[in-house]
Amino acid sequence: MASTQSTIRIAPTGPGHPKRVKSELMRQRLRAAGWFLVPMLVALAIVAGWPLLRTIYFSFTNASLTNLYGAELIGFKNYLNWTVLKSGRIVWSGLLADPVWWNAVWNTVRFSVLSVTLETILGTIVALVLNAEFKGRGIVRAAILIPWAIPTIVSARMWGWMLNDQFGIINDVLMTFGLIDHKIAWTASADTAMIAVLIVDVWKTTPFMALLILAGLQMIPRDIYEAAAIDGVHPVKTFWKVTLPLVRPALMVAVIFRLLDAMRIFDLIYVLTPNSSQTKTISVLARENLIDFDKFAYGSAQSTMLFLIIALMTILYIWLGKVRFDGGDR
Amino acid sequence: MLWRYTKTAAFYLLVAVIVLVSVFPFYYAILTSFKSGTALFEINYLPHHFSLDNYVSVLTTGVFVRNLGNSILVATSVVVLALFLAVTAAFALARVSFRGRGLLLMTILAVSMFPQIAVLAGLFELVRGFGLFNTPFALIFSYTIFTLPFTVWVLTTFMRDLPMEIEEAAIVDGASPWVIITKVFMPLMWPALVTTGLLAFIAAWNEFLFALTFTSSNETRTVPVAIALLSGASQYEIPWGRIMAASVIVTVPLVGLVLIFQRKIVQGLTAGGVKG
Asked: Which of B7, B54, B113, B150 is the best mutation test for A, with the most CBs of A within 10 A?
């Protein structure tokens, strides 16, 4: 926990230096810092802040793709609205009453929880392997970087081909080993579409998880393990009682990072399982409404909802991330 | 004794499975890309056919070369822009203490966690308003949202770890902050700049949602969109051979770069926590 915060304590400490010199220097640095920050802040405001505000604004209007500027404010009607029929029956509308929306929410949550859980378990195993000393460790480390380096679209296409029902190698392998008795249309059939998406996502992002966990593992001093070995503690017990508690901060950060990332998934699902209601997540649904269905305002409302969900989780992350941030070293 | 051998064997079996699962899909894509005609529909585990037909077809028909050019242009411009803005900002955030610095850093980190879809509507309006729709500038502009926070964040953590002494000497000599950045820090920062730049480049190279939404013609698309939309003569005829060839073309340089800069990339990744 040595302080890596090297802020300015520049003041020469000799007796002949009055305090005024230091504060003048400090003021000069502060002014420079201000000017250095302005371009970046302006860029972020234009490219992130303003568009976000506009999206939220559009969610309260009846805007359409062809009529962005003539849109009128309609309040919360995109979120929830009701009309009372003559018969006295109340008809609800808006996204909170839309089963398609809730299906997308369910898909997003299901995908995020399952993928992150699998990635954490597998990532921990890979990280433990990489943390051991053995011949060929470099090769393994290089090999697991390959899935990470491959563009998501390319991995979606590659796996789409491997999971092809007629000519796919996955069906061939499974048939050869007698694990299945008929060819499965992995990406097309409703039962397996989510499994297909999970397979590809886990394959692609486990390396990232493993590297983050490995960084945490490598900070654990080796002598703790030596002490445990001398005391004759079983390695499995060492893992649960020593390794896991010590690596938990790194693990938590990795999990939250991945969770936030999984919540906004778009590209993999758009390419691997287009038009499957079993895998349509909030991002996919929102873009469909924004661009394809010309329900710009409605899509904006869905985007805003996703933003709110993720914002809540980000606050959680920052709260937890603070530990790492002030801890300084990694 | 036997127990120890079993344990070692099990360990290496696990290692073999990890390597096989990691590498096989890419290997199989390469294998497929060299098949043409009906050979495509035979399942081979080892190289069996060798034909460059798919590569020739991808590179000569259609506009794939143009798409490659677009991707290179967009990714390079975005990286240069982001690094330029980030270096000075990182200096201010890492080496000068001022009120609200922690909050500012957290805000920047929060922006990198933004779901892209949340800004899509607003960006769409901006891109159309500026007349950038269906041009590479739309992408260079919009990609700043994820490259800039990331580069600022990683460069800040890097600069914070540099020792005080190097800066003190320059300050005593009366160097201005600008001179300190360009003359003192820049030479030390090359490794960090290369790593961050490379990671930002990969992120921009792989981006899909903005590229899909802000371009509309074949000529202005970037590579991921081109590969996603590559289709055959009919809806039911997916040109798998050509898709694999195109995939291999865009992935080989990336995999090469990543393997060369392995160590640096792992450091950068764990500092910035970014997904490619």
From this structure: B113
